[in-house]
Amino acid sequence: MITEPNWLRWAKQLAALAQNGLTFSDNPYDIERYEHLREIAAEMMAEGFDLDRKSFLDLFAREEGYATPKVDVRGAAFRDGKILLVREALDGGWTLPGGWADPCQSPSEAVVREIFEESGFEARVRKLAAVYDRSRHPHLPAIPFHIYKLFFLCEITGGVAAESHETTGVAFFAENEIPHNLSISRTLPFQIARMFDHLRHPALPTDCD
């Protein structure tokens, strides 16, 4: 079930069509049409987000090649049955540590890096617990990209709690202690609950949309 508004879904589809067309077209008339299509997508997003149209045109112009979803990795790292959460500096909400996957790193390498950078803890990946399509879950606010969210079950192997320029808190929480002020742009309550399910039942298959 798609939870994001139709205007955003349509705008993202138009932007992707325009990007793919500009990548593969040599015909100047087609290029002109795809550029116009990109302008329409930018206008739709500017209207929906109540932001300047040029900001979205600049955003689209930085995207090159065939349009694909972006990848966000999240680490559900446990110690003594409690889950590691970090408090985001940007919105003050708690979340599973994570962020964008980087080129030339495997997804598991990326999530281990993110856990260390945001919390100070070293971790080892045990399994891929879930692959979620962000647009199919009630994350807020809406954003102009299509995103796949990869959740990994991890165990702490070393390190000490350390805040970073991205985080203002690092702590472990039992399942009945999860903070109410989550950073729901990044992590939803049911996703954390599902990670506890995977901890209790290691043989559970990977969740996917």
Automatic annotation (TrEMBL):
Catalytic class of the enzyme: hydrolase
Nudix hydrolase domain boundaries: 68-196
Membrane-spanning parts: none
PROSITE patterns (alphabetical): NUDIX
Protein name, entry field: NUDIX hydrolase
EC number: 3.6.-.-
UniProt xrefs under CDD domains: NUDIX_CDP-Chase_like
Single GO molecular function: hydrolase activity
Keywords associated with the record: Hydrolase
Cofactor(s) it depends on: Mg(2+)
